[in-house]
Amino acid sequence: MKNPILLGILVVTGLFLFYHSIEVILLSLIGIGIGVVMAPLLSLLRRRYKIPRALSALLCLLIIFLFVGATSYALWFLVADQVSTLFERLPVISTNLKSRLSFVFARYPWLLNQIETLSLADTVQEIITQFFKGLNASIAALSGFLFSLILSLYVAVSLRDYFSTILQAFPPKHREKAERVLSRCASTLRLWFRAQLTDMVILGILTSLSLWAIGVDYWAIYGMLTAIFGIIPYVGTLLVVICASLITLSSDPSLVPWVIGVFILIQQIEGNIILPLLMKGQVELPEAPLLIFILLFGSWLGLMGIFLAPPVFAVLRVLYIELYLPYIDAHEIPG
Q: How far apart are CA 260 and CA 242, in angstroms?
């Protein structure tokens, strides 16, 4: 565009609209992502059982609701009593923890002063309050989630038509490459979702059973948190380890090394056995850039951003490999 003033106005207007439409854009991306993940299942039902795609979409929707409901009930059944007990014992846990830490750090007065002002009950309560604020915001946005779910059904049912329409927007000479890149993005998204969900389930079960076997209190809570925050490389599990170690230290210090050992062992099993089997080199994401991306999304979008960051990063990585790197290689200036 030759007029720089007009270009600047368009850019500012675009950024303004993007900023004020970010929630709609996110909900749309979620719906499109779910639809892309569901599409192969609809195709399978239609091909094998001759079920129309629209009816298949309704069946998938029912399965999703049943799965989410059953999973939520099972988790609540496991952790409800432990959460109630933990809240009741927080004042005692805080007192015992300060006493034990004061004894350990008695040689370091400046640390001792910090420990004396430590209130585990208040700290945990504040963390939980902030967490549930984000959760309440998510619940308040239930209508948005329903919008995403309905959108996902439309996308899954008519994915081929939408895909063909998108390809028509590219010049004929670039359509083959666009088809390859978009197909790889969809494949990467499906592989990531399947691998991540399986990894979370296995990680949560292994952590819960291992902590239960060594006699740690609140083993179900730690297992659930490990499964949820395992999506954040290293940092998520580290936060759970610190929390579990501190609470265990307040009641039975002899178990703390066992708690740390369990988490180290499970992380080794995950890194060397579970993830290689699940990923098979197809959806491996570099940890450092992924962690930075998660922190950025979390700072922008809160709890939702943390869980959206990995699939978005996986798709952007495909675009980087398929589009940016070949472009740089093709336009490299000879030395």
A: 9
